[in-house]
Amino acid sequence: MIEIAIDGPAGAGKSTISKITAGNLKLLYIDTGAMFRAVTFYFISNNIDYENEESVNKYIDDICIELKHINGIQHIYLNGNDVTKEIRTEEISKAVSVVAKNQKIREMLLDIQRKIAKENNVVMDGRDIGTCVLPNAGLKIFLVASVEERARRRYKQLVRRGKTADYDEILVNLKKRDEQDMTREIAPLKKANDAIIIDSTNMTLEKVVKIIVTLANERF
To answer: How far is Cα 137 from Cα 2, in angstroms, rounded to an integer?
Structure first.
C-alpha cells in the first residue's frame, strides 16, 4: 500500500497541499485534523467542558466519526450529520489542541485512521502521522512555514469566507497552539527522523505540490 504522511504546525498548508497531491497521484486524501475538529465541535455544541478530562471521557462513547468522499471531496460526519463546514471556525481552532491531548480520543481516532490506510492508498495529514499513525509510511513530509506567514494565510482564508478576522489575534493563537501541540505528553508535534522538511514560507502552493509529487513518484 502507498502511504504518504504530511505533518506540520497549524496553518502550514497541510490540508490544501495534501488534497491536491492526493488528486495528482490518484490517492485517497485523509484530513485527520478534521476528525479532531469534529470531536471538538461535539463538546462545544453540547456545552461540555472539553478541558475537563473526566467530562470528556464520559461522553466519548456517544461520538461517532465517519469520513465520506463525495465527488472526490472529503466530508466529515458527526453522529450521522455532515459537519464539514461547521468545524472550520476560529472557536474550534482555539479549542482543538486541548481536545487532541486526550488519550482516549486519540485512541478512538487512531483506530479509524489506520483502518482507512490499511484499505486504501492514502495521503494523510496531521501532526503525528509520520511519528505515530503511520510510522512505516513510504514518504514522510514535515511541512513548515514561519508563524507570521501562517497567520497571514489564515487571516486571508477567513476574510475570503466573509468572516471577521484579526491578524494579531490569529498570530497569538497560532503561537499558543504551536506550544500546546509541541509540548503535549501524548503524540506531540515533531518531525519524524526520516521525514523530509519543506519550508513553504516563500513557496507557492504549486511549487510545494510539485516537490512532493516528484518525491512520491521516485519512492513509489
So the answer is: 8
Rounded CA separation 171/166 (Å): 9
First to last CA, the chain: 10
Coil/strand/helix, residue 190: coil
Tell me the CATH architecture of domain 3-31+90-219.
3-Layer(aba) Sandwich (3.40)
Phi, psi of 187 (to 5 degrees): 45, 60
Domain boundaries, the chain: 3-31+90-219
**Entry pTM:** 0.87
> 181 near 101, Cβ under 8 Å?
no
Contact, 144 vs 17, CB < 8 A?
no
pLDDT digits (tens, 9 = 90+) for 47-87: 999 999 898 999 999 999 999 888 888 899 999 999 999 99
Buried b (16+ CB within 10 A) or exposed e, 123-138: bbbbbbbbbbbbeebe
